[in-house]
Amino acid sequence: MFKTNPTFRYLFLTLFLVFSIAVNSQQKKVEKKKVPVPKWKILGRFTFIFNQSAFSNWAAGGQNTVAGNVTINYDFNYKKNKWNWDTRLITGYGLSYLTAKGYRKTDDRFELNTLLGLKSSKYWFFSYFTNIKTQYTRGFDYSKTPELPVSDFLSPAYLSFGPGMLWKKSDNLNINIAPATARLTFVNDIFSGKFGVDKGKNTALSLGFNLAGYYKTNIMTNVELENILTVYSDYLNKPQNIDLEYQANLRFKVNKSIKMHITVHTIFDDNASGRLQYRELFGLGINYSFHEKVTY
């Protein structure tokens, strides 16, 4: 978790205000006629981004590189009577190859989030959410000699779940508040004593407050902005510290199959790292919707 010093508070408030302004600035659409509500909306999206550079007798110098990132996003939205069920899978993996250094991991992520809601008023639902988050392969800190392992498959792995209240304006705009969220952290024997798990143990349990927000909009023709925000505070271990994760995905549509993609991903989590975690990805690649379906 990250200590709430003044700099952090200002940054957190700024992110929260930006997210709030974006939510409140969504234009209200006047319905001219009542249209049927889809029972199922399914969208599966595959993205492949490739980068390559090669040098031969280049006076300015340079290093041959090959890099590729594969991302799969899968969204399931279900509505029937007062029930609402949203499930989102986000998974990706990327590698780069540098001459004389070999392969380096550039992306490694698996996240499954499912949220069940029972409608209580126009936009409010009683809710229950489950979130699973981990990575596929071992990661290293290459600044150390020899290189130091910092993560592994299912180590850490996070399982969070709990009841709450969901405010949902649409499939592209919602906020879930879960004040009694249980979180289990799993590590293997190599990483025992890290990620908030006590030395000699492989699991840790926390209970806290969780807020998750999602907002996606077209900011202009063929330009889509997606915002994902998660805030967590552990009641059992330094509740004044706050975990914060924010991801922004900006997509520029070139044509039906090609898009330019920019991802900015920021994490504050003192159990995983005492410093700000930051990841940025930029590239032009193939975008393919492999499963797109709407049923009534």
TrEMBL record:
Residues in the signal sequence: 1-25
Give the originating organism: Polaribacter cellanae
Give the superkingdom in one word: Bacteria
Ordered alphabetically, the record's keywords are: Signal
Q: Name one Pfam family in it.
A: DUF3078
Stated name of the protein: DUF3078 domain-containing protein
InterPro entries per record: DUF3078
